Amino acid sequence: MSQNNILERLAALDTNTVSDALDFLKLQGAVYGLRPLWDCPKIAGRASTVQLGPKTGTAPTSHLITPVISAVTTDDRILVIAGGLEGISCWGDIIADASKVKGIRGTIVDGMSRDIDGSRDVGFPVYGLGVTMISARNRMVQTDSGTPILVRGVTVKQDDYVIADRCGTVFIPAGRIEEVLDLGERIDRRQNLMVQEVRAGKPVCEVMHDSQFDAINNIKTSELGKICGAIYALNGNPKKASPEDEELVALFADSDTPGVSDALDRLGIPGQVFNIIPLTHYKKVTVGPAFTVRYVPASNQPGSVGDFIDDVAVGDVVVIDNGGRTDCTVWGDIMTQYAGLRDIAGTVIDGVCRDVNRAIDDNYPLFTAGRWMRTGKDRVQVGGVNEPVGIGKVRVEPRDIVVADANGVVIVPRARAREVAEVARTIERSEAGIREMITDGATIAEAREKLGYHTLQRKA
């Protein structure tokens, strides 16, 4: 098989599917934490490995990575850089320009980058741990290249295959690439069939019952039409919101999380969820009663990972306690698709999600501790539904009111929802008054003093 054909097939997949194929084959390769450092496109190519280390001598050295860039002669390369130091950059705009000129497809940095706007401006994809402003000059040196390196616990060899997208980065051993591609394409066909089944209305408990890919080898593209033609249509979510749910949700219709957070502080109620952030910058506020789910490590005969969603009512927010685990996901594109079809308001996860393109494109509200592509199937299972759970250091009872937006997530105890909503409205009216006063020419100190800004969140 030609190299171009292999890379075309790899690029047609995503990191979720490739990660699943590696799981099935018991291969390591999916790494957590190496994400796009700007909104860059998916990349697929072959690894040119670079090892960095701390500089110990005083003699001048060549700028790290530049010899590797100069040596590239083909257009299939992705630079894979190991040995980064916390807070120190090992990538910048000048070498991004040089790499772009050489036809390099992108860079994976097990470390930090600076001048990220420069990489973005020339359209050069960079994946890494984060950004910094601190130069590597006189702090780091290149110690080797073209040799095996360790990236986030995975050994990457020269010429191994790499795929990276919004969910993260996956490495594939060169000697197993055709096997991984064949299986990945079968998984992709199976996943596409599952999405079509969900879209057509088949209950997700049936669609996602296959926890060990039992059906993958039996699904062919030519069979999809026949199978999908037999699926019945969905007539909406039969589980409707109760009148009380609708009333409590309406109380927070004009609030946001900062206002509700201040109200919780004033009333002495802990409810601000720690370390859970929106998947993207949502412009509207998500409000709904909590449908709680608790995950536990999988048993020897793995249990369900997603059947609960058939019991979630219109307008509910699914609140998932996965113990803050970032090593496997509990939510992906099929769940997103199904939740959207059933008018579920959103999902909050003390853990990670995957298939984020679907959620972003569908504008489905997701609030999580991060994103990664590694499946939770056979790693976790549902341990309980509609029982108290812990999310970001906050206790959540079933049917508590969830308020989530671009700032984060807060939980309002159901029994105190009316009280919290009234205090939030009072605070928001005071802040609106401050804004009006400063627009009319008052100083911010005068406006804050008059309307008691510094005491708004203080306990009464």
Description:
There is one protein chain. This protein is an alpha/beta fold. The chain has three domains: 28-172, Glucose Oxidase, domain 1, CATH 3.50.30; 182-229, no CATH class; 243-419, Glucose Oxidase, domain 1. Helices cover 31% and strands 25% of the residues. The chain has 14 helices and 24 strands. The chain has helices spanning 3-11, 15-24, 66-71, 93-101, 116-121, 177-200, 204-207, 224-229, 243-251, 257-267, 333-341, 356-362, 417-439, 444-451, and strands spanning 30-31, 35-36, 43-54, 77-82, 106-109, 112-113, 126-128, 130-131, 140-145, 149-151, 154-156, 161-165, 168-172, 277-278, 286-297, 317-329, 346-353, 366-368, 370-371, 380-385, 389-391, 394-396, 401-405, 408-412. Strands 1, 2, 3, 4, 5, 7, 9, 12 and 13 form a nine-stranded mixed sheet that branches. Strands 14, 15, 16, 17, 18, 19, 20, 23 and 24 form a nine-stranded mixed sheet that branches. Helix 10 (257-267) crosses helix 13 (417-439) and helix 11 runs parallel beside helix 12 (356-362). It is globular and about 65 Å long. Mean pLDDT is 88; it is low at 219-235.
